[in-house]
Amino acid sequence: MVETAGGHYDGDVNHESSLVNRLTDRLIAGELPPGTRLSEAALAKEFDVSRNTLREAFRVLGEQGLVDHVPNRGVSVASPSTADVIDIYRVRRTIECTVLAHAPRNHPRAADMLRAVEEAKAAAEAGDWLQVGTSNMKFHNGVVALSDSVRLMRSFGNVLAELRLAFLKVELLDFLHAPFVERNEEVYSAYVGDSPAAASALLANYLGDSERQVLGAYARAGQG
Amino acid sequence: MVETAGGHYDGDVNHESSLVNRLTDRLIAGELPPGTRLSEAALAKEFDVSRNTLREAFRVLGEQGLVDHVPNRGVSVASPSTADVIDIYRVRRTIECTVLAHAPRNHPRAADMLRAVEEAKAAAEAGDWLQVGTSNMKFHNGVVALSDSVRLMRSFGNVLAELRLAFLKVELLDFLHAPFVERNEEVYSAYVGDSPAAASALLANYLGDSERQVLGAYARAGQG
DNA sequence: TAGCACTGATTGTTCAACAAGAATAGACCC
DNA sequence: GGGTCTATTCTTGTTGAACAATCAGTGCTA
């Protein structure tokens, strides 16, 4: 799969798939904040593509849940409601915990998880909370990668990307991410050193707390 | 959500969303068999839309996994390989069993499951195996509906639709569906009468057998 | 102030055109 | 005959312009 958070599009053979990645990067990076109306004419000019090409890209982003498409009113950056957040955490619990609990002990992809943990620690140290969020996504995508299922990874990746928009919406990246850098590491250690089942239990706890934090931030921000 | 297997598009406000549904129906119905090359010019004329509109529809079907898109070579109806089938069943086990095991006892959507079981029985009686397959999908979508998660339902629905293409590919609809009409009913009874956990165990068994059957059919058909 | 028509802007859709890749069919060589 | 190279042809990728349909805002009228 193409790296989406770094700005490398070497593998893109045509204009449009690169466009999807460029748009995804902007969304993930928090330029184009949640709720932003995406004007076809303006964006087409900005990315120097035709409206038709842009509209095709919109369709894939729409299916991925990154943008909302309302007929005759165009698309805007997805702005997850509290109901969406709850739904997203439902998915996370269902997929992440189950995959982790059933994962084989020495899965090769576990190395990705460890690397993500290290990255997150370094980024937290440096105060780069956006990068912490990216590393966090990498970690949890790594968890689901233990399933060896490309479909689970794809679906789950979309949901995580959506959750990132939720984080951006309340703009408390540090507050929301800080406590979980460490807990990712605990989950990893439990998986490697103890048992997948134990790690899964830790993760379930983790997700419960994380969800509460996000919903709390939403409540304080007065967001629907 | 719009009914996709019946031909009702009353809710479609614009041309394109109806186009996606019309295409989905054809795919699900087995016209346009797996692997069929979908020519833009030909389909645009057939559905009486422009190439651009059709291409937008292709993008959403591509994200849903119903069609494969190869740059510069257009799209063709997805034709799941054995690796895809294995992956699909991995998803099914992860999502269906987990959701069912954690489902509350008297979930309102359980009625949908029962209805699907009845439909499947009637259709099997009538020898309408395509309809049996549709009812079967309805049943398993009903299982996932017990999660109350729109995202799980959406992702899972896509995967099930893909699996249907796998069934169509080996063209043994009766053989593949026949044994499972009854087993759906057993799962339902266990959920309602016994416990979600028991039902989940039955379902896990069911999925294992089903997977073996499909892979066996693939092997006999000499498909990759 | 509650409608109501008007206006301006945006999206939905089509069409025609051309560039760029891929497939096909010969031509040619060994 | 088999294998490669090339020219032709077909299909997809992308664009720009155009028009219809719909929406948001404005000011008018009663």
List the helices and strands and how they pair.
2 copies of one chain form a homodimer.
Chain A: H1 15-29, E1 37-38, H2 40-47, H3 51-64, E2 67-70, E3 74-77, H4 82-102, H5 110-126, H6 129-145, H7 150-170, H8 173-194, H9 196-221
Chain A binds a DNA duplex (30 and 30 nucleotides) through helix 3.
Q: What would you call the quaternary organization?
A: homodimer
What are the low-pLDDT stretches of chain A, counting only 5+ consecutive residues below 50? 1-10
Largest sheet of chain A: 3 strands, antiparallel
User: Which series of helices and strands of chain A comes N to C?
Assistant: HEHHEEHHHHHH
Helix content of chain A: over 70%
Tell me the strand percentage band of chain A.
Answer: under 5%
Individual helix count of chain A? 9
Q: Structural class per helix/strand content of chain A?
A: mainly alpha
Largest interface: A-B, 33 and 33 residues
Radius of gyration of chain A: 18 Å
**Number of strand elements of chain A:** 3
Strand order of the largest sheet of chain A: 1-3-2
What form of chain A results from the Cα inertia axes? globular
Distance between the termini of chain A: 34 Å
- Average the pLDDT over all residues of chain A and give the rounded result: 92
Report what the structure shows.
Two copies of one chain form a homodimer. Chain A is mainly α and 224 residues long. Chain A has helices at residues 15-29, 40-47, 51-64, 82-102, 110-126, 129-145, 150-170, 173-194, 196-221; strands at 37-38, 67-70, 74-77. In chain A, strand 2 (67-70) and strand 3 (74-77) form a beta hairpin. In chain A, helix 5 packs antiparallel against helix 8 (173-194) and helix 6 packs antiparallel against helix 7. The longest helix of chain A has 26 residues, at 196-221. The interface between A and B is medium-sized, with 33 and 33 residues. The structure holds a DNA duplex (30 and 30 nucleotides).
